[in-house]
Amino acid sequence: MGGTPLPEGIKLIDENGKRIDGRRPDELRPLSIEAGVLKRATGSAYLEWGNNKVMAAVYGPRECHPRHMQDPTRALVQCHYNMVSFSVDDRKRPGPDRRSQEISKITSEALTHVVFTEYFPRTSIDVYIEVLQANAGTRCAGLTAASVALADAGIPMRDLVASCAAGKVEDTMVLDLGKEEDNFGQADIPVGYIPRTNEIVLLQMDGDLTIDQFKTGLGMAVDACKKIYDVQRDALRRRYTVPAEADEDTGSAEVK
Amino acid sequence: MGGTPLPEGIKLIDENGKRIDGRRPDELRPLSIEAGVLKRATGSAYLEWGNNKVMAAVYGPRECHPRHMQDPTRALVQCHYNMVSFSVDDRKRPGPDRRSQEISKITSEALTHVVFTEYFPRTSIDVYIEVLQANAGTRCAGLTAASVALADAGIPMRDLVASCAAGKVEDTMVLDLGKEEDNFGQADIPVGYIPRTNEIVLLQMDGDLTIDQFKTGLGMAVDACKKIYDVQRDALRRRYTVPAEADEDTGSAEVK
Amino acid sequence: MGGTPLPEGIKLIDENGKRIDGRRPDELRPLSIEAGVLKRATGSAYLEWGNNKVMAAVYGPRECHPRHMQDPTRALVQCHYNMVSFSVDDRKRPGPDRRSQEISKITSEALTHVVFTEYFPRTSIDVYIEVLQANAGTRCAGLTAASVALADAGIPMRDLVASCAAGKVEDTMVLDLGKEEDNFGQADIPVGYIPRTNEIVLLQMDGDLTIDQFKTGLGMAVDACKKIYDVQRDALRRRYTVPAEADEDTGSAEVK
Amino acid sequence: MSKDVMADLKRDHIVKLLSKGVRVDGRKFDEIRPITIEKNYIMSAEGSARVHLGNTDVIVGVKLIVGQPFSDTPNKGVLTTNAELIPLASETFESGPPGRPAIELARVVDRGIREGQAVDMEKLCIEPEKEVWIMFVDIHALDYDGNLFDAANMAAMAALKSAIVPAKRADKGEDFPLPVTHEPISVTAVKIGEHILVDPTYDEEIVADARLTVATNEKGDLCAMQKGGEGSLTVDEVHKVVELSKRLGAEVRSKT
Amino acid sequence: MSKDVMADLKRDHIVKLLSKGVRVDGRKFDEIRPITIEKNYIMSAEGSARVHLGNTDVIVGVKLIVGQPFSDTPNKGVLTTNAELIPLASETFESGPPGRPAIELARVVDRGIREGQAVDMEKLCIEPEKEVWIMFVDIHALDYDGNLFDAANMAAMAALKSAIVPAKRADKGEDFPLPVTHEPISVTAVKIGEHILVDPTYDEEIVADARLTVATNEKGDLCAMQKGGEGSLTVDEVHKVVELSKRLGAEVRSKT
Amino acid sequence: MSKDVMADLKRDHIVKLLSKGVRVDGRKFDEIRPITIEKNYIMSAEGSARVHLGNTDVIVGVKLIVGQPFSDTPNKGVLTTNAELIPLASETFESGPPGRPAIELARVVDRGIREGQAVDMEKLCIEPEKEVWIMFVDIHALDYDGNLFDAANMAAMAALKSAIVPAKRADKGEDFPLPVTHEPISVTAVKIGEHILVDPTYDEEIVADARLTVATNEKGDLCAMQKGGEGSLTVDEVHKVVELSKRLGAEVRSKT
Predict the structure, then answer these.
(1) CA quadruple E89, E90, E95, E100: dihedral positive or negative?
(2) Residue A17 lies in a domain
(3) What angle do CA C183, C185, C188 make, to 5 degrees?
(4) What is the pLDDT of residues C54-83, one digit of tens each?
(5) Does residue B102 contact residue F107 with C-beta atoms inside 8 Å?
(6) By C-alpha distance, which of E210, E174, E181, E212 is closest to E193?
(7) Which of A57, A94, A128 sits opposite E82 (nearest CB)?
(8) Rounded to an integer, what distance in angstroms lies between the CA atom of residue E215 and that of residue A140?
(9) 3-class DSSP state for residue E156?
(10) Nearest alpha carbon to residue A228 among A139, A174, A163, A146
(11) How far is the C-alpha of C80 from the C-alpha of C77, rounded, in Å?
(12) Less CB within 10 Å around the terminal CB: N or C of chain E?
């Protein structure tokens, strides 16, 4: 955001209103989620969303270390978001940077809201999000995947959190920014949302938006979260209802 | 110290025996101290001394972490001296460097001597010194401020520690080096002193001094500490004796 | 290993089959060990092997920190291998690097095998290896010295571990590589061995070897370990059997 | 557990008052605490300001040094924002490198400056691709009584507006005022139960369900937003905070 | 202590089966688990592969950037191998910088590639002494069911074979496939009691006495070896594993 | 608590003897332990020395590399002093980066060398503003029986005097001896009760009230001083230690 000029000759929205990857303004990139993909973790989910590839795993509830962090009244939901070194074009140095720590913090907060943490005092529920391939929108992808991994782990939850961003590109509000749109766009609004209860649990914004544009964008993101929620539920349903055919039937749900 | 040559045309002492900032050899820079300036800390003091600006805060006695550092017979006085990144002309990288760790160590030792640590076994008394603007003599300024902050916190103390440096400039012994004197001088002797009991609790020296020069310098620093001690007591007196007029009367004591 | 080309005009093996430092292929560099050289440590050993100088010290069994690492069934043998900054031509940055951490790990494993760890549950036996001067073969030198230091500390042990490397130089299998041989050789096989029970407790290899060459090399290293074992025992014997003459008789055992 | 009991009691008290339309300190729900701003507080910084927002006390220093541009913005200066939540300011802050709260604070303030285009970064280019001004905005909390986000944003803006680019010292022409072209102001609100209140104190913050920070520019457009906390917000609540921030941001801007 | 009881029970069970010639998962002692390799899994990497070895799941990315050669190999590219054993893959892995197991893994895989001369490093020289390609091989474990050494070695080799040197992007001529000239393959065996079994699962690894990894090349020569674990091996056992590794390494090579 | 009981008993014993004019090891109050110095102990260092001061055992290595001068001393070499108090030398030392005691040691030794103008730093300039010799003085404690300050100072001076600047290797002309022009020697005394004793052992150090290290040069002038410990000194006690240091420093200098 914030004004990297668009390279000569590139248009993010064409004369037909189509975006650079051919999508309509309110169209999501293809999304598929598979739950229960890891053997060692308590719960897991693998997600492909556009060109993002994200793995999420949950361990716990388990003893919380160090001890002085234990909360005697509830579990701590501790999220660790990480981009692997080769997930981006310029190799990223391994280890947490400031951006990933911020995302870890707000993702932890969003997930804490839906977990019945009071059932598991003094414990930690650890959520690991590894971005294997990054292509704009990884925090939303990570929160969406982590939510499914928590459910796959059998952690009691109020509901799933679905997450998606809206943004502004060439003065048009669009959904689910792709990489070029993220690089050269005018604003981004990542949203984490609980469709059943209409609650916003994650919200950021950067760029330049009028209040009306923001209203439009927030509305688009919220609507998209409802679709994403269906994909999440579908992934969990496949995981739990057809165990007999599991070996054959591991195909992933697609956004309709 | 140690021989950075004086730039052409600059004299640290003029023909009348006056120093580069107009002071006499045994004259302190202006000093003011205000106690109780922070709401969150148990005790605090703000000090301006020449162009130094220093904030000191005390927390505790409180539980000592990590536990294996606890002393079952007394409190630990743990001082953390820090220069903020913009306190010097060349931006300082945040975080402790070797110099600040050495100062933290000797300041902790000097303060431990005056605190009745045996009253608070297993606890930690944490002293934070933040140098907001640095202009030579910050370790003495920090110790002087920390001592007031400890008293402001109500920590039982044998007495206050006052601190001041003497030094050698163009072969003359002078008091309380300023920045140019510190950069281009020949020796520096920071002293921490308890006037009532005539005890030296902090002492360093670097540069080149005959034994006689050292004697002179140490004597000058000790005498100055007595004046500084009065300013410290004055700050505490104002803090405690005129609470009713506190809002109007927050002017600071000045060195006479 | 791995192909740094030999500088022009240097031959590692001459026409008489002698090596660059005059040794025969199966000849060790001079080795001397002295046990009990440090006062503060529970046990210690100083070793010179060719141009390597290595100090090893043992502390413990003692309480294991941090507590969550304690093993309720046995002692942990924790080895810390370190090369001091001036032990090599290009100054090494202080602190552990990846190579030293790997060596610490495999040395810990090798020593654990010979210590009766079950006698000291919940404790740590800390082994410090400091390479003061490095000249090829320091991991073998460190393991050999550490083994003597453990015995000197009075730690009950099944037996001593002796350690030596074989290697390949100009297609010839040779024992105990020197520095040029290490730099320009074709393969290296460090071995840790218990002569009495014929057990291999440390084994690495890098370079390029046929299986037959490896067999030859492993055999040479194992044979050499038997000689080294004698030097180790000799060092301990001198330490314990002639305390009366200790002051005069601190000369070191030499490889015959 | 006493901590939680206290938090519960505190929360009950605060909520009970709020349901009567009263805040603990007597403010209206949409009322910001008194603001005092001391500009040019630190002479070693190129720009600086100390801000009191009620009892919250924050100091920001701006340093400018010559360095290299990022390769994707060859003709723009570089902005680096850092926050130190030092333990001097609150017993809830810890020593050591910035943790997640400090990182979030720095990144939100940074986003306001960057996305609000506070500084004309092109004017900080000395020679494209070669040399630009690197701008360090360092935030130091001195006393923490809630709402560091807004206090730090105000202090950063005031420090930027007071900053002089030290071109002469770096031999890059004449000094000039930092080109501040926009003034994004953030306003933070918290949700406690059903109530939305702006500029929370420490006590209000720790019992709050969720926090929303919104930065607006002179036109009333949005440039940055950050939700925090484990609670949720409805879409309507978000829009309410957006409107509050726009109105109160303009008020703050007029005062500073 | 429950951990140890469980480990003992597990060990008893495994050993009892082994004494009947049976492994828990029904494999023969010299049988490797099914292997699946997905090459070019990550489009942001220059080369990549995801390998399943039974339930063990490892992803390797290769990044190539232009940099400086080491002074002792002025005409060769640089190989840097890094392993992250992230807590997503196992509850036995910890957050933070790589510990000793991750370092050992990275160094053993590195040794196989380096000593096995997998890549023609001279072809990665752009200009001697000035510019070469730096090759980062980054290993990420996703699911840990034993034998990461072999899984990582296979994934690394597959990633290298799929890698394209991005010369065009760096303005250094035309892209070309990474010159992979040899294919060292490692095979790992463990010793449990008297039994030697290859490709251990997690359960087999944790009860094993010792581990031996042997990397061989197409000619059946040895290029790297690493013993791990606190147990010992006899000379005969070492030679047995060497023979197994040669035979099975050729099998694996033919499949990949 | 046993530690404190032991310390109390030890202190009682030591003080009782001191009151009879006797030290535990039979020395006079102003007597330094036997000194042995092995120069050129490490052939990989440009200069080195191992010093035994009684049972205290310290090794110092000097490394010289070509680097850039500091901008404020463009025609002088750079001195960097580092101390590692490794756990091999004492159970009171911890692994990890240097703590406050190691930092204090390094800085006090550094101050002696630097302020005592031990080395003619201008002779270490190769080309002003461009290239100078960087001098690393690395201190390693091997056995800690008190008074590391003086042992390290002696070892550093001996190492400097033995050092050869490796100009030829760096292609900067002929090798030459490091230009050591002065020989500052430090003498450390401790105060136990009313007694002042020089060169304390470990036991004397841990029961001491205060420590004072004074470095003097050949003329008997002072170049560095450092008080340590939580106790105080009177002005007279300081002057007594200064006189002792001058006299004993000259003795030590004549021996080394």
Answers:
(1) negative
(2) no
(3) 95
(4) 999 999 999 998 888 899 999 999 999 999
(5) yes
(6) E210
(7) A94
(8) 42
(9) helix
(10) A163
(11) 10
(12) N
Q: Residue A61: is the preceding peptide bond cis (ω within 30°)?
A: yes
**Closest CA of chain D from B84, distance in Å:** 8
Q: Is D248 helix (H, G, I), strand (E, B) or coil?
A: helix
Asked if A132 lies within 8 A of E59 by C-beta distance, the reply is: yes
Tokens of B51: 């162009």
Tokens matching residue D68: 């290299």
Structural domain span for residue E153: 4-253
Residue D29 amino acid letter: F
Interface contact flag, E61 A62, Cβ < 8 Å: no
Chain C residues in contact with F89 (beta carbon < 8 A): 38, 40, 57
Query: What is the reported pLDDT for E200?
Result: 98
Chain segment B110-145, per-residue pLDDT in tens: 999 999 999 999 999 999 999 999 999 999 999 999
**Where in the sequence is the domain holding C203, given as residue range(s)?**
31-237
B2 near F CB under 8 A: yes
Distance from CA of E77 to the nearest CA of C (A): 13
Query: Residue D122's domain is classified under what CATH number?
Result: 3.30.230.70
Longest Cα pair distance anywhere in chain B, in angstroms?
A: 60
C152 touches chain F (CB under 8 A): no
Are D88 and B55 in contact (CB < 8 Å)? Answer: yes
A221 assigned to some structural domain: yes
Mean pLDDT of chain C: 92
Count of domains observed in chain E: 1
Q: A115-142: string of b/e by CB count within 10 Å (b at 16+)?
A: bebeebebbbbbbbbbbbbbbbbbbbbb
Task: Say whether D235 and A200 touch across the interface (CB within 8 A).
Answer: yes
Shortest Cα distance, chain A CAs vs residue D229, angstroms: 6
| Nearest residue to B37 via CA among E139, C1, D50 | D50
Tokens matching residue C19: 């090596």
Say what the pLDDT of residue A6 is. Answer: 72
Q: Among residues A136, A113, A112, which one has the least CA distance to residue A124?
A: A112
Number of H-type helices and E-type strands within chain C = 4, 9
- For F134, list phi and psi in degrees, rounded to 5: -95, 125
How many alpha carbons fall within 13 Å on the CB side of residue B16?
7
Structure tokens at F221: 């002038």
Q: Among B73, B104, B211, whose Cβ lies nearest the Cβ of F100?
A: B104
A201 touching D (Cβ < 8 Å):
yes
Q: Among partner residues C113, C208, C219, which is closest to E223 by beta-carbon distance?
A: C208
Q: How many CA atoms lie within 13 A of B63 on its CB side?
A: 5
HEC sequence for D203-235: HHHHHCCEEEEEEECCCCCEEEEEEECCCCECH
| Alpha-carbon distances, residue C23 vs C29, C136, C165, C178, F156 (angstroms) | 8, 15, 15, 10, 37
**Please, what is the average pLDDT of chain B?**
92
Are B87 and D136 inside 8 Å of each other by CB? no
pLDDT in tens, A217-241: 999 999 999 999 999 999 999 997 7
**Nearest Cα residue in chain C from F60:** C86
Chains near B with 3+ CB pairs less than 8 A apart are: D, F
Q: Domain count for chain B, please give it.
A: 1
CATH number of the structural domain spanning residue A98 = 3.30.230.70
* C251 part of a folded domain: no
Quick one: pLDDT at residue E132? 98
**CB–CB of A39 and E55 under 8 A?**
yes
Question: Quick one: which of A196, A205, A185, A174 has its CA closest to D239?
Answer: A205
Shortest CA distance from F243: residue in chain B: B211
Query: Which is nearest to C150 in space by CA: C189, C100, C115?
Result: C115
Nearest CB to B203: which of F100, F117, F227? Answer: F227
